[in-house]
Amino acid sequence: MLGVDVADAALDIARRKASERGLEAEFQAADALRLERLGQRFDTAHLRRGRAPGRTR
Question: Which of 26, 23, 28 is nearest to 8 (CA)?
Fold first, then answer.
C-alpha cells in the first residue's frame, strides 16, 4: 500500500496511525492527482479532500 499527500504533517500522522495498527505501508510526499509521476502502476486510487492538519480554514 502506498499513501501519498503533499503535506508532510499528514504523512507523519498516517505513518504513526499505520504503525499503531501494525499495518505495513509506504508513504511519499506527492500530488495524488499526478500519480503517473511516481513511475508506478496502481490497481486503484482513493482521493479524499479535507482540511490539512493544523489548519483552521
Answer: 28
